[in-house]
Amino acid sequence: MTPEPTDAELLVRFRAGEETALDPLFGRYEGPVFRFLYGILKDHHRAEDALQETFVQALRHADGMNPDTFRGWLFTVAHQQAMLLKRKEKRLPAQADDLALLGLAARGADDPVGAADDARRVRELLALLPDSQRAVITARVFEGKKFREVAAALGCPLNTALARMHDGLKKLRQLWEAGYA
After folding, report:
1. What DSSP string runs through the chain?
2. Domains located in the chain, CATH noted
């Protein structure tokens, strides 16, 4: 039985062009980093958001990081993402986060018509996204799948699913703020 590759070996393979090399690396750290973020943020959805952004940052900076210190670097990025999320919420408390934008946080029983209008608008905005981004958002948010499950269902590497989610939510937020639909 061959031993599991080290973090450094997986990063070297990724840098050499093996896109799927990050899948076991993310699988190795998804649980521990999520628990770390949950401990800071005390909210499941916010911890998932910070986890997603942590992995997106790991993808963006995979070429420049020291493979021997990946674990420490990843937890440092996770902490920074949690702090950014906390500061953003203090600074812009009225701004809807991505989950509220997706209609998961209803306005409340006092305005069912407004909530229904927002849900309709979000569905219309989702239809404007590229199929690949819409598929990841639908699977992750509405079907509740983990990123690893989303990637498997769509037949793409984990890092691709993460990037599509990030880009899709960013585009959806831009469309929302621009008043489309």
Report:
1. -PPPPPHHHHHHHHHTT-GGGHHHHHHHHHHHHHHHHHHHH--HHHHHHHHHHHHHHHHHTTTTS-GGGHHHHHHHHHHHHHHHHHHHHHH-TTS--HHHHTT-S---TT-HHHHHHHHHHHHHHHHHS-HHHHHHHIIIIIS---HHHHHHHHTS-HHHHHHHHHHHHHHHHHHHHHT--
2. 7-91 (1.10.1740.10), 98-178 (1.10.10.10)
Does the pTM surpass 0.85? The reply is no
The residue behind tokens 């950014």 is 84
Distance CA 72, CA 36 (A): 12
Joined together, the tokens standing for residue 51 give: 């986890």
- Summarised one tens digit per residue, pLDDT across range 60-108 is 887 788 888 989 999 999 999 999 888 877 654 333 455 555 554 334 4
Average pLDDT over residues 16-36: 88
**Average pLDDT for the chain:** 80
For the cut 60, the answer to whether the pLDDT of residue 29 exceeds it is yes
